[in-house]
Write a structure and sequence with these properties.
Layout lengths: L12 E4 L4 H13 L5 E5 L12 E5 L5 H11 L3 E4 L13 H19 L4 E5 L12 E4 L14 H15 L12 E7 L1 E3 L6 H10 L5 E3 L5 E2 L1 E3 H18 L15 E5 L5 E2 H11 L10 E3 L1 H19 L9 H8 L2 E3 L2 H7 L7 H13 L7
Parallel strand pairs: 1-2, 1-4, 2-3, 4-5, 5-7, 6-15, 7-12, 8-11, 9-14
Antiparallel strand pairs: 10-13
């Protein structure tokens, strides 16, 4: 066999949202590949999802604060940045989305240029930037246009679109030299895995309460999911590709370009959305028989969501988010599938962990946690 060139080293590495569940798995992959890598996490909450490794450093900092970001950037002096921070499914109010996502991304880009060590920045985006959450998204490609008002009404998706565009615009444009920081964005399907106390945590809680028999809509809506370990692999593949491209002219052939590009990533195995929920329930020991499924028509679900939103708003004065929302009902009844041929071709991405194995690993982790963790 021919001698393969040595793989580009990732470190030092900085992760924003470094204590989130996606970043937790990215860090695990980095440590497996580069055990001596110096890794720095920037997050507002550094008490969760920690790696007990002397090479991993946790910094409490707020992306919305330019001073915080610059302080951590100067400590880390990273070669590679994974920008995974996202307030969706967190306790952050919707009003904070712009400050955290848009302003935070600009603070990160500014600090990266100033420190002068950064070569690669991989951004975790969302397919929501090309979907209005009302229409089906079928075999979506990266070439589909980013939606703006009036088509796009979701504040989160508008903020993520602004951040993605800023990061793409910053590619090879740092101001230090003609090389600059190389950037790309990854748009994952619905992510699930160990430590996912957001979407998957809610599904596990519903299963434990014996409520997985309820289904919104006809259940015939395929959905692309991605196991978090596979998503972490995609992030590392993208980072290595950017580092390998650094110092080289940008390819004139757009079909092989990494920097300045977006990549859809999924498990390449769409499942019906509610079949996924019931597979999770089965792994918790609460299987649902087909004859026990209770189908709630979508129109009724949307009405229930509307009532739930108003009741919770009235009781809490707008400070709490209801567990049932119209947006959530739409989210679970739409088709949402992604074409990942570009990630396969350019990054060499292939999902290593199947959907079934990913569900088994994920639910096993939840079942080993104290009940209040979910």
């Amino acid at each position: 066999m021919p001698n393969l060139p040595p793989r580009s080293r990732l470190g030092p590495v900085l992760l924003t949202g470094g204590n989130g569940f996606v970043a937790y798995h990215i860090i695990a992959k980095i440590l497996a590949e580069e055990p001596d890598c110096s890794i720095h996490s920037l997050d507002v909450n550094i008490n969760r999802n920690r790696h007990p490794n002397a090479n991993v450093h946790y910094h409490r900092a707020d992306l919305a604060s330019a001073a915080d970001v610059e302080r951590v950037m100067q400590i880390a002096r990273p070669v590679t940045i994974f920008h995974t921070a996202s307030p969706e499914f967190s306790n952050a109010p919707v009003s904070a989305y712009h400050h955290i996502i848009v302003d935070g991304t600009q603070h990160l880009l500014n600090a990266a240029v100033k420190v002068g060590t950064v070569r690669a920045l991989v951004n975790t985006s969302t397919p929501g930037v090309i979907n209005d959450n009302h229409s089906d998204l079928i075999d979506a490609t990266e070439e589909m246009p980013i939606l703006r008002p009036p088509q796009q009404q979701r504040i989160y998706c508008l903020a993520k679109a602004d951040a993605e565009e800023a990061i793409q615009a910053a590619n090879r444009n740092s101001g230090h030299d003609d090389q600059g920081v190389l950037t790309c964005s990854i748009r994952p399907g619905l992510v699930f895995g160990e430590h996912d106390v957001g979407a998957l945590g809610k599904m596990v809680a519903v299963a434990r309460q014996g409520r997985s028999r309820f289904q919104m809509g006809n259940g015939q809506n395929p959905y692309d999911f991605v196991y978090v370990g596979n998503l972490a692999d995609a992030h590392l593949l993208a980072a290595h590709a950017l580092l390998d491209a650094w110092g080289q002219p940008r390819p004139t052939d757009p079909t092989v370009r990494v920097d300045g590009e977006c990549f859809n990533v999924s498990n390449d195995d769409p499942w019906f959305f509610w079949d996924f929920q019931r597979a999770v329930a089965s792994e918790t020991g609460n299987p649902v028989r087909p004859e026990d499924i209770v189908v709630i028509p979508k129109w009724l679900g949307l009405t229930m969501g509307f009532v739930s939103e108003w009741v919770v708003w009235a009781i809490s004065g707008g400070t709490r988010t209801p567990s049932m929302t119209r947006e959530g009902i739409r989210f679970s009844t739409l088709i949402r599938t992604l074409n990942i041929n570009k990630a396969k071709r350019v990054l060499g991405y292939r999902p290593k962990v199947s959907m079934q194995e990913g569900i088994q690993r994920s639910v096993r982790w939840f079942m080993e946690q104290p009940q209040e963790s979910t």
